[in-house]
């Protein structure tokens, strides 16, 4: 019974397609019947039940990227024929039978077949299995049609699974086939059905399926919420970005890592870490590798040209990165006692400086400070030595060491003492003061001045200092 049904389903469309030709050739109805029946029987004998099953239920390639082979075999089956109703661009009606098309690499198994699509609806494919098809570029009309490229590549992920719903799966494929005809030849399909009328796709269902496909195309191009954001990181610093659009997971492959950062993805979060070897500027870009590749046609002389879909401009997103690898150094000079700024103090800075030199001399400004921007990379140890200081300060040549921190300003404060004068008070001076100043002479040298208190001040009675006389012959 099954074989009889196959004969019936194969015979009817071939008969319909062949009637016109034989009438033009004035061949009798009996001869025409015999020819068509023979063609149908040959087709059934040529394909064993195993082979028919393999081709009618191909395993669509699950490659994350597509690289189509140079030579393929094209297969189709009349027992899967659909009757299409539509209109050409000039208004001419279209009513024709077409079958789903599959391709596989020459010498490969039909079980590894992939979907293909007719782009010449009026051209024949003489045999159900035709080898010798050769890869060629898409025609110019289709090369710039991104919707067509996405549709022919993504439909298999949108359609019902062939293993569980083969009819639903095939409906989606034939809607895509119809849209390919529209893009390639201006043919608008309104509806289609199985040859025996058992399955019908109305215009309303056609539009509903097409909307699902178009929505999927729109979602395919949707970017993560942080697309094109500019992120600034210090060396060793990390940031975790959360995609509120919920599409990050589909961007599975890094296109480039121009900033040379570390990164990790988990669900809808992306973590980026800057490192010492990171570049100061760059992008981190991810793309969707699923079905990425070059869409192609397969051609053979006198036969219908078919196309195989792929996405040559896959969806991509980017994060712009600025990495702060260097840090700043600020040197400050103050009076040790008063904490006032000391200008015009010269310092020498030594180390592996960012400009390639090993040392640099700098001088504090009127505020007692000098700042060196981007002096060295993160972690570099610098030595700061005082070279000169204005009078009356005492030079402090003690080296000071600091470590630079990326994106930060490391500060060092140097303190200096003023050069101090001396006042000497001795016994002879005191005796002279008492004799000449008080009009009395000390009786003898046994008199002690120990414990006498003195006040010192300048002429303005400011900057006073006090000290007490010791037993020494003099006091400073």
Taken together, the total number of domains comes to 4
Segments where pLDDT lies below 50 for 5+ residues? 1-29, 35-63
**Average pLDDT figure:** 82
Assess the beta-strand content as a share of residues.
25-35%
Helix/strand structural class? alpha+beta
Basic shape: rod-shaped
Strand order of the largest sheet: 2-5-6-18-17-7
Domain SpaA-like prealbumin fold: 327-417
Organism: Pilibacter termitis
Protein name: SpaA-like prealbumin fold domain-containing protein
InterPro entries: Ig-like_fold, SpaA_PFL_dom_1
Give a quick rundown of the structure.
By secondary structure, the protein is of the alpha+beta class. The protein is 24% helix and 33% strand. The protein is rod-shaped.
Which features would summarize this protein structure in a list?
Immunoglobulin-like, disordered N terminus, 8 helices, four-stranded antiparallel β-sheet, alpha+beta, six-stranded antiparallel β-barrel
Please write out the topology.
Layout: H1 2-24, H2 29-46, H3 49-56, E1 65-66, E2 71-76, E3 82-87, E4 93-98, E5 101-105, E6 114-118, E7 129-136, H4 140-143, H5 146-158, H6 166-185, E8 188-194, E9 200-201, H7 203-220, E10 230-234, E11 238-242, E12 253-257, E13 262-266, E14 269-273, E15 281-287, E16 292-293, E17 296-299, E18 306-308, E19 316-324, E20 326-335, E21 346-350, E22 359-363, E23 369-377, E24 381-388, E25 400-403, E26 409-416, E27 425-426, H8 427-438, E28 453-456, E29 465-468, E30 474-475
Helix pairs in contact: 1-2, 5-6, 5-7, 6-7
């Amino acid at each position: 019974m099954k074989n009889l049904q196959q004969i019936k389903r194969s015979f009817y469309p071939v008969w319909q397609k062949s009637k016109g030709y034989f009438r033009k050739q004035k061949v009798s109805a009996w001869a025409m019947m015999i020819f068509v029946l023979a063609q149908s029987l040959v087709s059934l004998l040529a394909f064993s039940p195993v082979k028919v099953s393999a081709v009618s239920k191909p395993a669509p390639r699950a490659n994350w990227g597509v690289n189509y082979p140079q030579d393929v075999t094209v297969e189709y089956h009349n027992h899967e024929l659909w009757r299409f109703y539509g209109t050409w661009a000039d208004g001419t009606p279209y009513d024709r039978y077409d079958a789903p098309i599959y391709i596989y690499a020459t010498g490969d198994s039909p079980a590894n077949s992939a979907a293909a699509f007719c782009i010449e609806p009026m051209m024949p494919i003489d045999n159900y299995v035709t080898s010798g098809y050769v890869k060629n570029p898409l025609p110019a009309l289709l090369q710039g049609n991104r919707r067509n490229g996405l549709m022919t590549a993504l439909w298999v992920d949108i359609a019902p699974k062939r293993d569980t719903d083969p009819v639903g799966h095939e409906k989606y494929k034939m809607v895509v086939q119809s849209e390919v005809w529209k893009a390639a030849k201006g043919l608008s399909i309104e509806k289609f059905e199985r040859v025996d009328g058992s399955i019908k796709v109305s215009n309303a269902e056609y539009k509903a399926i097409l909307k699902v496909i178009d929505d999927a195309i729109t979602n395919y191009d949707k970017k993560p919420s942080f697309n094109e954001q500019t992120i600034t990181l210090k060396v060793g610093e990390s940031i975790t970005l959360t995609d509120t659009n919920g599409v990050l997971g589909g961007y599975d492959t890094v296109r480039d890592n121009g900033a040379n950062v570390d990164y990790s993805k988990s669900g809808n979060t992306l973590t980026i870490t800057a490192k010492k070897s990171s570049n100061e500027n760059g992008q981190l870009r991810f793309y969707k590798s699923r079905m990425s590749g070059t869409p192609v046609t397969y051609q053979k002389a006198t036969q219908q040209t078919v196309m195989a879909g792929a996405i040559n401009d896959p969806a991509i997103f980017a994060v712009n990165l600025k990495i702060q690898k260097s840090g700043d150094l600020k040197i400050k000079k103050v009076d040790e006692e008063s904490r006032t700024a000391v200008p015009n103090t010269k310092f020498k800075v030594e180390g592996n400086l960012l400009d390639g030199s090993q040392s640099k001399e700098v001088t504090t400004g009127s505020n007692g400070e000098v700042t060196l921007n981007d002096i060295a990379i993160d972690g570099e140890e610098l030595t700061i030595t005082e070279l000169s200081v204005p009078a009356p300060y005492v030079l402090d040549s003690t080296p000071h060491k600091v470590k630079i921190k990326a994106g930060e300003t490391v500060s060092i404060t140097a303190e200096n003492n003023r050069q101090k004068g001396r006042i000497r008070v001795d016994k002879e001076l005191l005796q002279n003061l008492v004799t000449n100043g008080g009009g009395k002479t000390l009786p003898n040298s046994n008199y002690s001045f120990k414990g006498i208190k003195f006040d010192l001040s300048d002429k303005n009675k400011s900057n006073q200092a006090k000290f007490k006389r010791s037993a020494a012959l003099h006091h400073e």
